């Protein structure tokens, strides 16, 4: 049997992906008032529907899960109706799309919180730096540590959001366990100093993320649910005393759930520069028995080599897919790539969002 390439199809349960190039989850801060997805967002995803699979930008599961201006939610009827525009348009265009379920935890600010209260987290430890609010940059505040008896309420928010994603017509959901947000804050001992059953050992720190996953799996078939993790990530002031062992434990636990995929963010150049750990995504291959997606600073050649060499089944692209709506075709044809413009990543209008050109159609 010849090994697959980046351009080979992949079947996950009853989901048929025509290629292995995935649109990584990308926050673009262009939702309408009330965190409602809009027709401009539908156009953006339709432009990228040739991806084997698209994962949406993070969608907050509740108002208190928001940490950036104009990010979409998945908790109100208006948001579900807005996402329905997106999923219908993507399906008409022949695409497949999972929603990323997001709660930022401490990476927020009272101005995003209902009633102006403190953001919540496993422990009352502030991230370093500043948060972008509707009133400009503000220092992070120390969050309020969640009480043990509040945690079932967090799990229930994820369950409801998973149901809303189903009602909105998505093909599946990705649980955001990466990049320093709430579930990552529970997993890592730099941010989780709890002394109850949800802190201390890695078994305890994994408890809330696994309860969330099981709640999502009470709504969706397992092959329609992915989990994203960033074992080497330092963004949002993240640290852990032994990330290789702790994430190894967690990923091994995920084998039991027969998921659509596990999605690992690779060590990024900036993480390494900040002295972060260097745990290659492929090192989870011997640990995880299911479909493995890798992401982070891939180009076409490296992605194809990862798939052909067996390190990855799927490769997600972030910035290259922002700038190249027809990325799978460009990679396959080895065509030149447009350069992404970071000044239009977060917020704004159609510029830097809908106006990156696709390749011309080949002459008939
Ligand atoms: C503008 C921007 C927004 C992002 N938003 C999210 C997000 O909502 N959820 C998430 O898990 N990762 C997010 N990421 C991380 C990307 O999914 C990806 O891991 C990262 O960009 C590395 O991949 P790349 O080198 O191909 O861009 C974001 C990255 C960028 C540049």
UniProtKB/TrEMBL annotation:
Any Pfam family the entry gives: Oxidored_FMN
Disordered: annotated segments: 328-350
Cofactor(s) named in the record: FMN
UniProt cross-references to Gene3D superfamilies, sorted A to Z: Aldolase class I (3.20.20.70)
Sorted UniProt keywords: Oxidoreductase
Molecular function, one GO term: FMN binding
One term under GO cellular component: cytosol
Annotated NADH:flavin oxidoreductase/NADH oxidase N-terminal domain residues: 6-338
Family as reported in the entry's similarity comment: Belongs to the NADH:flavin oxidoreductase/NADH oxidase family.
Protein name: N-ethylmaleimide reductase
UniProt organism field: Varunaivibrio sulfuroxidans
């Amino acid at each position: 049997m010849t090994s697959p390439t980046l351009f080979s199809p992949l079947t996950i349960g009853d989901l048929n992906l025509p290629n292995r190039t995935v649109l990584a989850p990308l926050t673009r801060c262009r939702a309408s008032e009330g965190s409602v997805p809009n027709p401009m967002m539908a156009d953006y995803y339709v432009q990228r529907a040739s991806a084997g699979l698209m994962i949406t930008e993070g969608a907050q599961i509740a108002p208190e899960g928001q940490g950036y201006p104009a990010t979409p939610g998945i908790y109100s009827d208006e948001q579900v109706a807005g996402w329905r525009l997106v999923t219908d348009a993507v399906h008409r265009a022949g695409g497949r799309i999972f929603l990323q379920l997001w709660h930022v935890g401490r990476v927020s600010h009272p101005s995003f919180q209902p009633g102006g209260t403190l953001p919540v987290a496993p422990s009352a430890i502030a991230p370093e730096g500043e948060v972008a609010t509707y009133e400009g940059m503000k220092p992070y505040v120390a969050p309020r540590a969640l009480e043990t008896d509040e945690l079932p309420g967090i799990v229930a928010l994820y369950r409801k959001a998973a149901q809303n994603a189903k009602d909105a017509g998505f093909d599946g959901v990705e649980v955001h366990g990466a990049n320093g947000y709430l579930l990552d804050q529970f997993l890592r001992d730099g941010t989780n100093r709890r002394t109850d059953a949800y802190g201390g050992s890695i078994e305890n720190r994994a408890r809330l993320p696994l309860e969330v996953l099981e709640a999502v799996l009470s709504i969706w078939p397992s092959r329609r649910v992915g989990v994203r993790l960033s074992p080497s990530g330092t963004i949002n002031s993240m640290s852990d005393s032994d990330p290789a062992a702790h994430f190894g434990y967690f990923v091994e636990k995920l084998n039991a759930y027969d998921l659509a995929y596990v999605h690992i963010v690779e060590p990024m150049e900036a993480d390494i520069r900040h002295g972060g750990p260097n745990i290659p995504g492929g090192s989870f291959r011997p640990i995880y028995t299911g479909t493995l997606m890798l992401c982070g600073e891939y180009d076409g050649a490296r992605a194809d080599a990862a798939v052909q060499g067996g390190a990855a089944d799927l490769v997600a692209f972030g910035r290259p897919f922002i700038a190249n709506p027809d990325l799978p075709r460009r990679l396959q044809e080895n065509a030149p790539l447009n350069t992404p413009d970071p000044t239009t990543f977060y917020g704004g209008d159609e510029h830097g969002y809908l106006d990156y050109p696709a390749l011309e159609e080949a002459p008939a």
